[in-house]
Amino acid sequence: MLILTLELPALPAQELIANPALPSAPVDRNQLRLYFTLRLKLWDNRIPLTVFVLPDDHPLHEQFAKSVLGLFPYQLRQVWDRQLFSGTGQTPITVNSEQDMIERVANTPGAIGYAASGVSHPQVQTLEIR
Asked: Do β-strands 111-116 and 14-18 pair in parallel, antiparallel, or remain unpaired?
């Protein structure tokens, strides 16, 4: 009898990254969901919010949506599409790579995104998630 085992590579934990000009206050999960579903469009200090995400099928996006936001990627997509098609909102800006996200968040006032933790990202700040 032949038994095959499949080991999937472990995905790194992820962290919430933000433009360095934003206050470094912790963000609670409910508030974070509102930001990433684009239901809140301004930070507490009235700075406009810009959200960057990776493609829906990117492993880091899938893990961030599930473990941090508590949503499946298709649920996020449904919220974004509903807002876009009804004319009540926009979708987040999709970037092609984690490095592109880090650069765009660093250079866009009021921007947030996510990146793999355990790697230094000196051009952005990491926000604590409560």
From this structure: antiparallel
**pLDDT string in tens for the chain (130-residue length):** 555 444 444 445 789 999 999 999 999 999 999 999 999 999 988 999 999 999 999 999 999 999 999 999 999 999 999 999 999 888 999 999 999 999 999 999 999 999 998 777 899 999 999 9
pTM attached to this predicted model: 0.88
Number of domains in the chain: 1
CATH number for position 115? 3.40.190.10
First to last CA, the chain: 49
| DSSP code at position 45 | T
Structural domain including 70 reads: 14-127
> Does residue 8 sit within a domain?
no
Look at residues 37, 58, 68, 66 and name the one whose alpha carbon lies nearest to residue 101.
Answer: 58
